[in-house]
Write a structure and sequence with these properties.
Keywords: ATP-binding, Cell inner membrane, Cell membrane, Membrane, Nucleotide-binding, Translocase, Transport. With 343 residues, the protein is α/β, with parallel strands linked by helices. 36% of the residues lie in helices and 22% in strands. Bound molecules: adenosine-5'-triphosphate.
Amino acid sequence: MQGTDPLVQIQNLDVSYYTKGVQAKALHNIGMEILPGERLGLVGESGCGKSTLLKTIMGVLPPNGKVNRGSIEMDGRNLIEMDEKLRRQTRWAEISMITQSALNALNPVQRIDRQIIEAIRTHQAMSKEQAAERVSELFGMVGVDPARARDYPHQFSGGMRQRAVIAMALALSPQLIIADEPTTALDVIVQDQIFSRLRQLQQDRGFAMILVTHDIALVVENCQKICVMYAGMIIEAGNTRDIIQKPRHPYTIGLINAVSVLGSVTAPIAIPGSPPNLFENLEGCRFAPRCPFASALCHQKIPEPTTLENGQKVLCHHWSKADEFSKLAKSPETWMQSTTATT
Ligand SMILES: Nc1ncnc2c1ncn2[C@@H]1O[C@H](COP(=O)(O)OP(=O)(O)OP(=O)(O)O)[C@@H](O)[C@H]1O
């Protein structure tokens, strides 16, 4: 079910890491909103800032990470300005996370039910018996026999462990679940099973979900909305169907062509080169050095965001030529023309 007021609204968010006094601008001017009950996919290559954005939403940035500007509003409160005690209460109870590796999320020397019972009782006044009942219910929800709840993590297969982590994320019925590459370590069949279960749970229980992945095909299958990140910025966002049918940013066009079925190209075309080093001073559009369509302006000036009639947002000086770019981008030779691509 979708309402009109956003559940979470992020505005003008800048986050940097400081290493030996040198600043890496990991997030620059991030703006996005998540409606209640919405599934939003956040895609981009490794190092583009996806994890930094999630950690900022969860309030778990490492000590050298700093929010320099912006707000994250949830239920009328700015999470960035909230004191740490209140912030801790929102974690798991209002926003929870399913991490890349279930092995990292679960304590290997503790039975799984105890871990979930402890997580529940840290936030809610509940007897051990009531919490244990809740664990059985949660196991049923994620499709694992509740009788297995007393196992240790190593007694579970990879898929079962990831289901246990999903059970933990659901334990306190949060309004937002962030899933960070939740199935990367699993084979394709188990991946499909986990995603169909997650979608079902999301529809039944109505929580909103941010799915973070480098795999745009997963977003197409699972999310109504998509945000494409590049080098710390959201360069395109909107309804998944609109963006797949009519991408307006050359980077999004490239990501789609890297998956042949989506890009309807005979063989996947990789985008040559790699994202910029964020510790360097970057001028102009951050994708310009790899973009086959970049002009002199692109190398000099960061584009202003444009919002199209369908609500699609794009950050490209030349978005109006995107149909032409899409045609040219289906040829691998086009990508070889980008001036400073390194591979
Ligand atoms: N603790 C840190 N200290 C300094 N720089 C960091 C730190 N964590 C991340 N970075 C840098 O911030 C940028 C964004 O990294 P981030 O991990 O958010 O990207 P990502 O898109 O999640 O990548 P991946 O898909 O590989 O997890 C990268 O340039 C990375 O090197």
